[in-house]
């Protein structure tokens, strides 16, 4: 029964992804072509996975936060901070230090958000707004307002290298999906997170450490955001505190929502959130390939958000109820 | 809770900040600086007034920055490309904004969806539509624009109270009157206190929601017109991130983000505090603009923590709900 439910849940998203890929194929006949060059796969399909990696990583953290009925608006700013730290340390101190410092910063950012939400009891949207506003300033402070470039080859590899022919960002993306999935679904953790989102008070009475759960998901979200920031910086071999991760928090939330996770918490799917991120990226790529101005992106996204939300809305369940409601 | 209203704290922060600036730069305490503070933040003051209504009613409007951008492009193209008289263009865009806000409010109410995500879609829509109209900055050369920008009330001490500053002050005054002295305003507070109770009291929750978001969008449109006066151009990338600035201004102004409490006067102070930080940075000359964001973030945290502490005292009974998304 549960298995069937899950399958039918994911069906709409998979079909949507396939339809969009088919449309991409229609506007660009060589869309599905793959070729091997310099030990790395190339092609539009790989491109979708590669370009979509930051948003996919963000949505991996975001989906857990949203499952607890929260939201994290600061992930874009955390990306900028992590990218700035990694870029400024990479050349002088080497890749391990840079990576550790950037991930550590993401961890701290997540702890801060989690502290505000879980301990101080501030609404998530408000609590994370603080870091969203201040975080970009902090990132600019680190880079002193300049675009910091670096050449450390092992960090650059994270953006442009390949593992067994798969681009490194895609490998990281898949690796994180497997790790998160193993931790969350391989144990009772996922269930506890869903319980917290479904009814925090009841879960607490049932003996679940809801505060620890909430703290943990924000920390994980901060880590994922830092990783996304590092990859974005490695991709352009530099950190741009002004634009790194700008508005990506919205894309990540959108990916999670498209993936069928309700903003009201209580139920989530990691894989479908990733599919959501791929749908967004396939749309972006398709619009670019079709030669339409990229400005269409935002309009299409707006339409998709509305349609998905309408489908999720409890009031939309029966059209009659909606009409009756509207007539009042 | 009764001791000191949040607005008083905001006012004290502003006065202290101004005194600090004056101590460092003796020229700071002039009507010139004060008038510029009002002019430079005129559009933010207008849009934050609308945001105050939305937040007090328990909602949030993320679309305002995009609506400002859309408005500047629409006005510029209508006047410059189509030759529409400016006043007709203004009327048209305000009507359009009203319809836009009403649509968002209706979706929020009818489908019972979180305002956050509905206005997020509105933000994408308005920004995308302005990109579609034009991606280039269009200068506006209509005679009305130079008339307006030349107009100013001269203050003693060399300050110039410009037309857009006066418009902002008028909007703030009208907003305060609407919020504090009318039935509409009382209903806004009631909605923020409790939606269910408000509905049981017989207040039409649906039409209130529609009207509140309509007000916010119309004021965002007006802010866009003022912004186009300020820059004499229409540009689709203008006012990116203004929604955050205005939410920050509202919160620093002492309005409760959970709704039910707040004031327009506080919001004006919140706007002026942000302007003050910017002006200080300009005076200093060595600090960079990113300090604005950091200091705004710190103030934001201080005020939210303050609110939380006050709420904690007010509702000692019962444990807090952790991690609840406002809907």
From TrEMBL, chain B:
Official protein name in the record: Sugar ABC transporter permease YjfF
Membrane topology: Multi-pass membrane protein
Molecular function in Gene Ontology: transmembrane transporter activity
Pfam families xref list: BPD_transp_2
Main location group: membrane
Record's keyword terms, sorted: Cell membrane, Membrane, Transmembrane, Transmembrane helix
Annotated localization: Cell membrane
Phylogenetic placement of the source organism: Bacteria, Pseudomonadati, Pseudomonadota, Alphaproteobacteria, Hyphomicrobiales
